[in-house]
Amino acid sequence: MAGDPQDDAAATEYAARYRQFVNISGYMRKQTKIMKSKKKCFVRLNGPTLSCYRERTTSDASWQLSLRKAQISGTEAKLEIRVATPSRTAVLFAENAQEYKKWLNALEESAANNIEDYYRLGDLIGKGSYGEVREAIDLKSKETRAVKIMDRTADTKELEFLRREVNVMRKLMHPNIVRTYDIFDNNKTLYVVMEYVEGGDLFEVIANRAADFTEQYAADAIREILKGIQYLHSRNIVHRDIKPENILCVNSAFPLRIKLTDFGFANYAEASDNKPQNHMQTFIGTPFYMAPEILTGKGHGFPVDL
Q1: Residue 148 marked ligand-binding
Q2: Whole-angstrom distance, CA of residue 212 vs CA of residue 223
Q3: In sequence order, which residues have a C-beta less than 8 Å from that of residue 247 and are 6 or more positions away?
Q4: Which residues form the Protein kinase domain (predicted)?
């Protein structure tokens, strides 16, 4: 299928912002209140909390700071990092340039990882085994988004699918793919901020407006779906769960504008001399929509999306 230049232009390299908590610890020097001298201490960053101890083995912290809305700044020449919060300002000094960059990046990541500083969560859109999806308002642009909220404490297999889904979603940008804007990872819960598509899924449209769904409109919808699949395959991604419920409609009027969503079963199908493109063996998908090669367990690849 020949590519549309307009679609190719839109399908540029892209990666959604991934914000996560960082857990690190080590010795630094803190600026004291008296004489502004520097005193060695052990510092531990555990997600949104920064704690300072006299020694590594000390159980009680000298002080703790919540990094929620903290202002993080640094002076590389002095190896100085300043953490300013409403209750306290801490000034720390790294041992060397490498440690300075590591600590500055970690503190900035943790300070910017609260979704409520960027979005106002709203009504429930849907719920499933993965978690739930809620409406949200971007506090800066005032645009409506959809936020998929997923539990990171799931079992090992589910966590593997979750990581893969996020890795796939954050790199996709195409007119026929639901776009991911932000990902917030706080070690317990994953918030994936996505494009809000208000037309419902294709299953609902077929069920509610079957009489209006002419052959021409069906062909238009198929063309949109195939453009999205073509883009995925060009990036060596197999969706593996193409079904009406995973096809969203931007509008409710015909012809429909289509966007593919839900990449929980997606995987990469890169071919090599030792690994053909039908190397995937996992029994995966939705009953009644699964391709025959998945059911027979003979290996599958790109064709299962068609």
Answers
A1: yes
A2: 18
A3: 201, 202, 203, 225, 258, 259, 260, 261
A4: 119-306
Contact call for residues 248 and 178 (beta carbons, < 8 A) = yes
- In the set 185, 241, 262, 305, the catalytic residue is 241
User: Residue 257 domain-assigned?
Assistant: yes
pLDDT at 104: 97
**Residue 301: which domain range?**
202-305
Determine how many CB atoms are found less than 10 A away from the CB of residue 226. Answer: 15
Region 87-103 average pLDDT? 96
Per-residue pLDDT band at 3 (split at 50, 70, 90): very low
pLDDT of 5 > 50? The answer is no
CA distance 88 to 248: 48
User: DSSP alpha helices (H): ranges in the chain?
Assistant: 5-10, 97-111, 156-169, 202-208, 215-234, 292-296
Active site residue 241: yes
Pick the last residue of a domain from 112, 137, 168.
Answer: 112
